[in-house]
Amino acid sequence: MTSQTHRASPSPHDGSAARASAAPALQRSTARLWLGLAGWLALAFVTAGIGSIASVQAPQFYGQLAQPGWAPPPSVFGPVWTALFAMMGVAAWLAWRQPPSALRRRALALFCVQLVLNALWSWLFFQWHRGGWALLDIAALWIAVAATLLAFWRLRPLAGALLLPYLAWISFAAALNFTLWRMNPQLLGG
């Protein structure tokens, strides 16, 4: 009976005491990771929400515009942006998980800058009907996203790769912005 009791208690030599004390730290670390993911996704989707406030009347306004034959229908934008904002949040989370460094701080700052530019575009284009200003904003957005993509790539290639569809989409959106602005000076002047 004594030998069983001795075997059941942790010995400082068998590592079980260290494993027992590491369990709460692992739980805190895992919880921090999940909270971090939720936080970065929330930041991305709050940005989407700010942009969507300006876009409440977007389908009607977009429908009034003279459009090129390659312009997508309004129903395409919601699903595409939902997927892109989710990928942005995950990309930022992957970058955030890397060890603290000047590159990580710069990459996450760039990420936040591009979110501001992203939200501003919807206000410029859909709410204030300023096609030229929206075009300037999307050009700055493209540069900010490209810089964020490169910085994320240096931290973790998957984080950068998750921004490739976003960069492709805003490249398309910039071309569409320019074309709509030129085709609709009476509705998008400025």
Describe the structure.
Helix content is 81%, strand content 0%. With 190 residues, it is an all-alpha fold. It has a single domain (37-188), classed as TspO/MBR protein (Ferritin). Helix 2 (16-54) packs parallel to helix 5, helix 5 (102-127) packs antiparallel against helix 6 (131-155) and helix 6 (131-155) packs antiparallel against helix 8. The longest helix is centred in the N-terminal third of the chain and has 39 residues, at 16-54. The model has no long low-confidence stretch (mean pLDDT 90).
The pLDDT mean sits at 90
N-to-C CA distance? 88 Å
The CATH architecture comes to Up-down Bundle
Assign the CATH topology.
Ferritin
The structure class reads mainly alpha
CATH superfamily: TspO/MBR protein
Low-pLDDT runs of 5+ residues are none
The number of helical runs is 9
Describe the sheet with the most strands: none
Which descriptor suits the 3D outline? Answer: elongated
**Total domain modules:** 1
One letter per element, helices H and strands E, the order comes to HHHHHHHHH
What is the total tally of β strands? 0
| Radius of gyration from the alpha-carbon trace, in angstroms | 24 Å
Strand content: under 5%
Percent range of helical residues: over 70%
CATH class equals: Mainly Alpha
